Amino acid sequence: MRPVFCKYCSKPIDDRDELITATNYARIYPYHYLCYQELEQETTTVQRVWKPLNDGLGTYIAFLMLILSGWFAFTDTLGAVGDIIAALSLYPIGLRVLSFFLYELRVPNQSGSQ
Is 7 a domain residue? Predict the structure, then answer.
C-alpha cells in the first residue's frame, strides 16, 4: 500500500501511534502527533480549529452519535425532528469511519499491541 504522508511536514508516518487524523469541516488530513500539536498552536480563529478523529474522545463521540442516530432512527421519538437529528448525527460517524479506512489501515502498527 501507499505510505501515508503528514500534511504538515510531508514526511511519511511510519507507526500508527504517531498518526493523528484531524478534520476541519469535511476535510480529513493525517498528521504526526507532534506536527498536530504545532498546528494547534498556530490556529488563531474558531473557524480553523482542527478536531482529532482517531483519539479516544473522537472514537467516543462517534460511538455516542451511533447510539443517538439508532435511537432516533428506529423509534418515533420527536417524530420527523428525530429523523433529522438521526441523519445529522451520522456525520461524525462517517468522518471517523472514513478516517479509519483512508489512513489508519494503511499505517502499520509497529508498537506490538494490536
Answer: no
pLDDT, tens digit, 9 for 90 and up, residues 32-45: 999 888 888 877 66
Can you tell me the distance from the alpha carbon of 110 to that of 112, in angstroms, rounded to the nearest whole number?
A: 5
Q: Pick left, alpha or beta for residue 10 (phi over 0 → left; psi -120 to 50 → alpha; otherwise beta).
A: left
Distance CA 75, CA 59 (A): 24
What is the reported pTM?
A: 0.78
Q: Answer whether 50's CB lies under 8 Å from 40's CB.
A: yes
Is residue 94 domain-resident? yes
Q: Is 3 part of any domain?
A: no
**The C-alpha cell that represents 92 in the structure block:** 461524525
Model pLDDT for residues 14-67, shown as the tens digit of each residue: 888 889 999 887 789 999 999 888 888 877 665 667 788 888 888 898 899 999
Q: From residue 57, how far is each of 6, 43, 51, 92 by CA, in Å?
A: 21, 20, 10, 12
Please answer whether residues 104 and 21 qualify as being in contact, where contact means their C-beta atoms are separated by less than 8 angstroms: yes
